[in-house]
Write a structure and sequence with these properties.
Length: 409
């Protein structure tokens, strides 16, 4: 959206500054995100009461009626309408605009806002939108709609352009990557797209965003390992290590299948970093169920775990399930898993001392240059040499400090 405004000759200023137009791009993943969005919305007009306030994003998509009641808002746009934001702002005279199409009927991938550059070396490319899985705690299928995949040719053409800019790493993302291509007849599997990306000259690394465990089949991994640019870092959203909890979450896999996938990855990628998301305190999660999850995670030894305390989201099945868990229990379970995650990370980092790794250097920072290995470990090297930025170099690891590794060229 920022890019659209720049193209139309608008000047982007800090959100806290006085402006003619304010855009609040909302999130709705928890009730808390809704509340935060409402607080920001109410504050905006204090900065300039004559400004135009546009509210868009997932909260706008699912709560149009709720936003109707907020007097300060001039324009409400759904996710599909974001691409025309400048036109809506310019059309706005005296009339308020409400344009939120029913995203559940959208069948085409919106060719808009598909790439973001995180730094000089890496571009994040969205290739898929929407989700048909309906996990019982998640609002995303209602906010993002049915699965829609970006055309393979469009993805390849864009990555070729990215490579021309000197970017060496692409991160392939989507709301539910495993569903890529399922909306096409015939079905275009994700692996077919990755094979094409692997051929693009100038791109050295392909990183995959969050993956559904069910994607990790023998066939998929055996094909994937042949693509030498694919990084050995896999983020697999587990959510729980207990089958009964997974069932209530409507996650549609069992921990046995998940573990098989992990073993396959480790067999083919001996240095793989495996990361995951876990929800603690899901409705009905007993001490016994949590213990199962804990023991499973102890065995799998993820490099890093993102731990979320379950927070009910209005409009989802889980929000009205019985046996909601008290805050202090969630807190305690979360603490235990974070401790386990830190321990695993420290152990893996220490194993790297004395080893040589390849680092794609990103930028200088206070006398050091930092970058990532292909398995996404952050490495710092003492240097002020700007010419190393955006190059891949061999580094010998000398120290492990907290989350990071330190080494020498
Ligand atoms: S697969 Fe992910 S995006 Fe889809 S419903 Fe489940 S948690 Fe939400």
């Amino acid at each position: 959206m920022k890019q659209k405004f720049i193209e139309a000759d608008y000047k982007i200023v800090d959100f806290e500054k006085e402006a003619d137009v304010y855009v609040v791009n909302t999130c709705t993943v928890t009730n808390m995100s809704d509340r935060k969005s409402r607080q920001i919305i109410r504050r905006v007009k204090e900065q300039n009461k004559d400004s135009i306030l546009v509210v868009t994003g997932c909260y706008a998509q699912v709560a149009k009626e709720e936003l109707e009641t907020i007097e300060e808002i001039d324009i409400v746009l759904g996710n599909q309408e974001k691409k025309d934001i400048v036109t809506y702002v310019e059309e706005k005279q005296k009339e308020k605009i409400r344009k939120v199409s029913n995203i559940l009927y959208e069948r085409d991938f919106a060719e808009f806002g598909t790439t973001t550059y995180t730094d000089k070396t890496r571009a994040v490319i969205k290739i898929q939108d929407g989700c048909d899985r309906f996990c019982s705690y998640c609002i995303i299928p209602y906010a993002r709609g049915r699965i829609r995949s970006r055309k393979k040719e469009e993805v390849i053409a864009e990555i070729k352009e990215i490579a021309k800019k000197g970017i060496k790493e692409v991160v392939i993302t989507g709301i539910h990557l495993a569903s890529y291509g399922k909306d096409y007849k015939p079905h275009i599997p994700l692996i077919e797209l990755l094979k094409e990306v692997n051929k693009i000259e100038g791109i050295n690394r392909i990183r995959l965003g969050s993956l559904e465990p069910t994607l990790m089949t023998k066939e998929f991994i055996e094909e994937l390992v042949k693509l030498e640019k694919v990084c050995d870092h896999f983020h697999l959203s587990l959510q729980s290590g207990c089958n009964a909890t997974l069932e209530r979450m409507n996650r549609r896999y069992r921990i046995e299948e998940f573990e098989e996938g992990i073993q396959l990855i480790r067999r083919h990628y001996p240095n793989a970093s495996l990361t995951t998301d876990v929800i603690v305190g899901f409705p009905g999660e007993t001490e016994e169920e949590f213990k199962e999850t804990y023991e499973f995670l102890e065995r799998i030894k993820f490099y890093k775990m993102h731990v979320f305390k379950y927070s009910p989201r209005k409009g989802t099945k889980a929000a009205v399930m019985p046996n909601q868990i008290a805050g202090e229990i969630k807190e305690g379970r979360s603490r235990k898993l974070i401790e386990l995650s830190n321990k695993n990370q420290e152990e893996q980092n220490e194993n790297y001392i004395g080893k040589e790794v390849a680092v794609l250097f990103e930028e200088l920072e206070e006398g050091y240059i930092k970058g990532h290995t292909s398995n996404y470990m952050m490495v710092y090297v003492k240097s002020n040499d700007k010419t190393i930025e955006n190059t891949i170099q061999g580094v010998t690891i000398t120290q492990a400090i907290g989350d990071n590794l330190v080494g020498e060229l």
